[in-house]
User: Fold these one by one.
Assistant:
Number 1:
Amino acid sequence: MSSMDKEPLFSAKNVKLLTTPLNDENPITVQVLGICSALAVTVKLEPAVVLAVAVVAVMGAANVIISVLRRTIPQRIRIIVQLVVIASLVILVDQVLKAFLYDVSRQLSVFVGLIITNCIIMGRLEAFALGNRVWPSFLDGVGNAAGYGWILIVVAFFRELLGSGTVWDYPVMEKLGLYTIGYENNGFMILPPMALITVGIIIWVQRSRNRKLIESK
Amino acid sequence: MKQGNTYIFLYSSAMVVIVAAVLSVVATVLRPYQELNIEIAKKLDILRSVEKAEQAQEVRDRNSYVEEEYDRYIVDSYVISHLGERRDDIDAFGVNMREEMRKPLEERNLPVFVAQDDDGSEYYIFPVHGRGLWGPVYGYVALMGDMNTIFGVIFDHDSETPGLGAEINTPRFESQFKGKKLFDETGEFVSIRINKPGAVPPGDHNVDGISGGTITSQGVEEMLYDVLGSYRTYFRNQKNSEI
């Protein structure tokens, strides 16, 4: 390997891998993937944040593993290989949470297992890690997971605030004294449909600010 | 690269072996930590049902705090049959309520934990286990010495919906049970009914359910009826022996 073709770790191209999924190619709002878990875990902020962190870990590691193995994986069983990698990593995360963050793992319960069915992870393995080198794959994985995570956290913030009147279980609405002047929690925010509507509003705001995303007629 | 069937077969076999090895090593290494967590969580739940160990969130070394409190307040624990006879060969703490509730009534091992407060008053704590909407719901019910009045309850769940059914483990729901009674004036076992919020006027046997968590609420109601129902004879015996 000559030093000529060795790219710096954070070259412009690599940084783009990390940042475009946050906005221009956001997996949730632009590619509309991974919606199912976004509906399920965004009632409260804490599970949403922990799930976001867990997805960053799983997706970064899965992309690295698949990228390392990419020349050996038989074409015909590549989906199975990807699934095995994702499922094992998720089990690892779950076991570690149970051993060292027992309270959080009790709250998250089914949601950690839900990472296995997250379409974004397999989508990135299939679309990127199978054809790229390790470092770019890692950045791509972390970038996409972060793009997924911040949408989750924003949605969870509004749903918890308006639906339960709290932020991270801190009673914001009560402290602001809004209940005494007749404010009531909007129970509808807790139901899954409002997650979809909140995601819709985020998509609307994002497209009105980011002209590149508007499809030409 | 040529990838024939032999290659695919060998590749998948190797993958399965490696993954299985890694996961079982991790599971074995982490098991002691997990088991300790489960034990501490169980002790903490038992203590919380009688309003002890309230600083558990604040103390730095939670495990030893919970152990100390447990040793201080839980003075006795034993297993009884559905007829209220003591079975001394079984350890009450190790009984898995989920499995006991699957057995027919005659075969169930029913644990009893006895807590003694600083002022000498005794509380009897019973583990409960039932089905919610998505998975098991469970907890502990503490009765006063009269074996009728509820002193406190603690519920928890594995997978109920956050904000809806999952609200059964909030103080808002649990505190309603304090002071409710299991037996009516005629001595009949009625347990606690969980109603649609506001539908039934408050009484000795009614609490409000969770809006939007109807099936979980029903699960809790059934759980209390089934599990505490298995202790019925024991409650009666204890009551009579005190008179």
Number 2:
Amino acid sequence: MTAPAPPRPARSRRPALVAIAAGLLLFALVIVRVLVGTPMVPLDLALRVIGGEAVPGYSFIVMDHRLPTAVVALLAGTAFGLSGTIFQTLLRNPLASPDVIGVTLGSSAGAVIAMAFFQADGRALFWFALLGGLLTAVLLLVVAGGGGPGAAGAADNRFVLVGIGVAAALGALISYLLTRLSLQSAGDALHWMIGSLSSSTWDRAAVLAGALAVLIPALALLIPRLRILQLGDDTATSLGLSVPRTRVALILVAVILCALTVAVTGPLSFVAFLAGPIAQRLAGRPSFPLAAAVGAVIVLLADIAGQNLFGGTELPAGVITGALGAPFLMWMLTRSPTSGSGR
Amino acid sequence: MRRSTPLVLAGGLLALAVACLLSLMIGARTVSPSTVVDALSDYDSSLTDHVVIHSRLLRTLAGIAVGAALAVAGAAMQGMTRNPLADPGILGINAGATTAVVLGVYLVDASEVAQFTALALLGAALGTVVVYAVASLGREGATPVKLALAGAALTAGLGSVVNALVMIDDSSLDRLRFWQVGTLGARSLADISRVGVLMVIGAVVIVAMAGVLNALALGDDAAVGLGVKVGRARALLGTAIILLCGAAVALAGPIGFLGLVVPHAARLLVGGDYRRIVPLCLLGGPVLLLLADTAGRVIAPPAEVQVGVMTALVGVPVFIVLIRTRRQVGL
């Protein structure tokens, strides 16, 4: 009859299977996030609450606290995962995630400036964070990406180098701002800087959902061009692609994804950094949907762990992603013969 | 761009002298150069200006020590790891040292420079070992990208731990948020000399091994071919780097950028030979740090902008110019 299945379909089916598994895992994690905690919520009560019934004591916990938190975690993880993967793919460098090249810190700096000089919170913080992230990205583009045509590898390397420099400068700026705040405000700013889901509301979930509803289709349209871009600038140009314009568009999408999310949750470290490489290891090749799912899994797991694993102390999700993300990334580095050698 | 080395070194010395003079002259109370000379040669404790200069003298000495230590450590790291991104900040050494100090402040209420030094050295050593071990495991060994990734991972991971600790304890936050910025003020001569001894040992080792750095920068195979015992050389250089970085963090807090920018600038001036780069870093590090510190005193009166912020402000443009003027930042 037919020959044994050639390797190609097997390879292309793997990401789909992994994505389905990730989707199921996400669904399970959302349920766990809603049910588990102090107090525990019985499943039947949770279902009745979600069905619209008012259950004294539980309606508030489920509808105003845990469910919006789970939704924000899901959306934030998705956005960080996509944003990191765009940067890493575009710049062909696992180091090029927004947390490493300073975009995340730019958003943080914007927010801390708002706290230091304008006593801002809520909405205003949000705009400052967005502004900070965008300004940082524009600075990076002007300084590093705006160079003339020519050696593509050098341009990529240059982008990451400039980004690491800018990140360090922003780190110093934030430390300085912390010395200018009152002790109380410095504590608040620091708490925000760690990244936490504790102030998640439906409002914030809606903002993130709205942004993703626009940005994900935009990204979907850009991905085929990104694949062409990966063939190299010269090849892409000869195929009729406007390289600078495509690059700017992709970076814009990535920055807005990242900055919006930072504005909502604070900089959850390592999520953008890790989602892409983990997805790639699972799927055997880069995959945006899977990176989004992995990002969401990381954030949800970190939040659940921070809420439940430390007795009375509730640790923000950012502490967990930071403290566990580092060893995990290091473990990946030792395991993988190739992931560290990408340009 | 390459200029004759003696000329560059002479220029470096001159720049260092000017930077020292400016550091002694300028501040909330600005004094004339002649008063500076008077105060140094014929100190009179009844004159306010002389007292001002005396206190600035300590700060200037700290600046020279920390600046030289960080710049030389950066140069050695860049050569040894063949990594243009190498910097005590980027490879996780500062993070290790900082975390150890923060843990010390939090757990045992550390406040003495001697305690800071012991903790910082321990932390720097642990950080270096972890980053290097992680990057070395796996098939390819310690490639620049793996080193930088491991360093970034450690920095971010330890950063969360520090933030979490500081978050639960307000008094640690109050002390640490000032120390964490990096500052040269408020150190005694005893502190500087005690920490300075460690720095001198580290710097001497690296100066003596500049030729070995040249070989290592060619790659391990070439270095072995040139008769270098690669493992031993790395161990020695690594120890020296840890001494320099740990001591610098203990004295002034984490100061970024110097270890990255100064060696690149030196390379631009005198070419790729570490026997020229390292001595120039000994001069260039203090120049940059002192100028940054001096500028920080006057940039936003009456408050002072800490030197860690200033090195970033000065460092980033220099760094960007370096990257832009060279097609590829190589070694």
